[in-house]
Amino acid sequence: MKKPSEPLLEVRDLRVDVGEQNVLKSVSLAVPAGALAVLMGANGSGKSTLGLTLAGHPRYKVMSGEARFGGQDLLPLSPEARARAGLFVSFQAPPDIPGVKNGLFIRSALNAVRESRSESPLDAFDFLASARTAAAELGLPDAMLNRPVNDGFSGGERKRNELLQLALLKPRLALLDEIDSGMDVDGVRAVVKLVQSLRAQGTAFVVVSHYLQLIESLEPDSVHRLDQGAIVEDGGLALARDIARTGFVRAPALAEA
């Protein structure tokens, strides 16, 4: 009998504290290569904490449990090493970085990833050509590449800029934290189109979202509900539809159905 392959991302009994507060009590999640999992949950349930913990944010302290990525122990790695390994985490509220040009920022990140893959770096000319193409597909003007990172960007522009990074980096797994928040209709369509394109190339996704229309458009393989720092329900689109109908405060009979 053929042994089943190890999930690309495997989180087991992860417990995380932020300062003196325990935010994740025990989270377990497995995401195969190329799969798309959706995380749903009320505000404060731990969705963003999971993403920032996997990214290696220093404020988020892993107290117990494990996280493996591509068969490798993720937790001892620096944030830079996690990114080079192919993990991409978007921000719910992307920060601005005054004084650092957007194009230079993305090219530096891309070339660091290419170096880890034993690929030659892109020079400014080649990068600009690919960046302009990707930006046009996402509805971002070329001028955004020459401006400081997110400086003066609207909420929707910041999210599209996260998508631009995603499109160029082509990670093995992307965790998108409410990527549709602040987006107009065209922006949400750009999200769906890019996710579908990258999935076809093998990228796996963990998508945090509250909105059923986006979730249905993404056609997830699994849906998981977080509550008070733990995953309490697993399912598919039917679970997302139930949550949209009943809300996050669910009766025990519904959660056990």
UniProtKB/TrEMBL annotation:
CDD domains: ABC_FeS_Assembly. Keywords: ATP-binding, Cell membrane, Membrane, Nucleotide-binding. The keyword ATP-binding applies. InterPro entries: AAA+_ATPase, ABC_transporter-like_ATP-bd, ABC_transporter-like_CS, FeS-cluster_ATPase_SufC, P-loop_NTPase. Residues 9-253 form the ABC transporter domain. It comes from the Bacteria. Pfam families: ABC_tran. GO terms for molecular function: ATP binding; ATP hydrolysis activity. Belongs to the ABC transporter superfamily. Ycf16 family. This is Fe-S cluster assembly ATPase SufC. The gene is sufC.
